[in-house]
Amino acid sequence: MPKKYFTSKIVKLATTIIVCAFLIFFNPKNIFNPVRRIFLTIASPFQEIFYGASQKIGETTSFLISISDIKKDNANLSKENNSLAAEVAMLKQIESENVILREQLNLAPRDKFSLISGFIVGQDPEGSESWVIFDKGGKDGLVPGMPVIVDNGILVGKVDEVYFSSSKINLLTSSTSSVNVSDVETGAKGIIRGEYGLGLVMDMVTQADVLNVGDTIITSGLGSNIPKGLLVGKIKEVKVSQDKLFQRAVVISRLKFSKLDVVFVIK
Questions:
Q1: Per-residue pLDDT of the chain (267 residues; tens, 9 = 90+)
Q2: Looking at residue 128, what is its pLDDT?
Q3: Does some domain include residue 65?
Q4: How many distinct structural domains can be found in the chain?
Q5: CA dihedral (168, 172, 177, 181) positive or negative
Q6: CB neighbours (10 Å) of residue 165?
Q7: Does the residue 238 lie in any domain?
Q8: Closest to 192 in 3D by CA, of 184, 180, 207, 176
Q9: CATH number of 188's domain
Q10: Distance of alpha carbon 249 from alpha carbon 252, whole angstroms
Q11: Does residue 90 form part of some domain?
């Protein structure tokens, strides 16, 4: 019984407060103006506090949103800058390659041969200077056996395997390489081979022929599609073969085969 009585009192009090608030808020015929003034006077400081707080919350929210937008803009700009930096680097690389290619083309014997120029893009991973990968292939007209040169006609090797857009060049220093050569000064003829540890060796030179240290060795043009007169190198040392039937000469090339960059294939 007391609990029901207490609940009834609360309901009546709440109803009375709601009715009074309604009458004060809508103020029919301005009856409650004095009460409204008192209420507004009491509520005014709280309204200012709540209004200021809401303004600050709004400003803070706007500030946080602007920071988020700035971060997104910065992220987008960073991506764009990275993309532009990559493009600039690529253009610089292309420009550098074009400069190198033009310089080499000016030195290449274009008046003597029809040449296919390009860059070395790979090499023997074992570092034995046996072969390199050229960035031109079957689509450019390459076929196996074509001679490869640099500068003013220094022999590099021969095209060994041809793919669609690239090819494998077998270097003079490869143990499987053999090219017919001759001594410019004495006319002695032999075969230049790659020999691990020695680089290039001129072999199969008869005892009747003369070889001298410092002589220039060039291609002889015999027995292959390699033209005569391509520079191979100079004799560093002359030896006699183990059977003493032939002479051998260690030949030093002007090239650093591990540093090849631009080469030319003779068509």
A1: 455 555 666 666 667 666 665 655 555 555 555 655 665 566 556 555 655 666 666 667 776 777 777 777 777 776 666 666 656 555 555 555 555 555 554 545 556 788 898 899 998 887 777 899 999 999 999 999 999 998 778 999 999 999 999 999 999 999 899 999 999 999 999 999 998 756 899 999 999 999 999 999 999 988 778 899 899 999 999 988 777 788 999 999 988 888 888 899 998
A2: 72
A3: no
A4: 1
A5: positive
A6: 10
A7: yes
A8: 180
A9: 2.40.10.340
A10: 10
A11: no
Q: Give the amino acid at 93.
A: Q
The residue behind tokens 């400069």 is 99
